[in-house]
Amino acid sequence: MMLLTSPSSSRQHSSVTAFLLQLLPLAVSSVDPLPAPTLSTDPTHEFYYEGERFALICLAATKKKIGGFRFFNQSREQIHQQAPYSLQSAWLQVTATKASAGDYTCMYFVEESGQETDSNRSLPLSIKVQAAPVAPTLSLDPQQQVYSPGSSVKLLCSIPSAAAFVKEIQYYGDIGVAVSIPVADIRNYSYDLSITGQEVSGSYSCAYFVIQSARPVRSERSPWINVSVKSHKISWIREVIVGGFFFTINGLIFFFSHCLMKRRDSSALEAQD
Q: What's the whole-model pTM score?
């Protein structure tokens, strides 16, 4: 049995098909990813030493209004999102550690008519990290458990013999102290810390800078050492207590001596009678 169609229905079918074919490229293009961004570093080095800071910079490849950026590590896990964000590039500050070594990628997205469209991911950028120069040692001179206000103590930073071309010494304190001192390739440097009061109590550390790979590189920090300052209040209370005991004991001695002498005088008078 043959199914017959009229010329008019055939023309309608062709028109619908043609209309759908025209819409298909638009539908596909609306979900097509945007061009991949470019990922770079600032400053750019072949490798970074532990402790150095650098920025990952993701530059979008579109003139459209940006909705935000995403950064990924080598495990393809998102480590940072910057959104909402409308600039054409985004920065991610990184401190170089052994854990931060690896490949990074980034992407951006735009938002149009309430719909988010992602870009392709950037090409991987490899970050290499090397160990920082060996830490110095920090010691105190004189070495005391407690320091009195008005005195001073030397913070002696001793640099390993393997370090060459030392250019700077830095001292750090957990109270916010940071002192940088230019030097000329030395092995030991001492900083005079004035004991002004309780405000200098705390832990201290030091590090040095050397020229490596044509740039200044900071060493690991020395282990922290503690500077304890004698409290005026505790000292004053102690002196009052000690002084009080002294006068109390002397008073008791005087009292008993007086009673004993009085008793002797009374006995002498009775013997005369």
A: 0.68
Question: Quick check: 52 and 46 in contact, CB under 8 A?
Answer: no
Contacts 24+ apart (CB under 8 A), 159-164: 159/186, 159/187, 159/188, 159/189, 159/208, 160/133, 160/134, 160/136, 161/187, 162/134, 163/133, 163/134, 163/208, 163/210, 163/219, 164/210
Over residues 248-266, the pLDDT tens digits come to 545 545 555 555 555 655 5
SS (H, E, C) 25-86: HHHHHHHCCECCCEEEEECCCCCEECCCEEEEEEECCCCCCEEEEEEECCCCCEEEEECCCC
pLDDT at 87 over 50: yes
pLDDT in tens, 36-48: 999 999 999 999 9
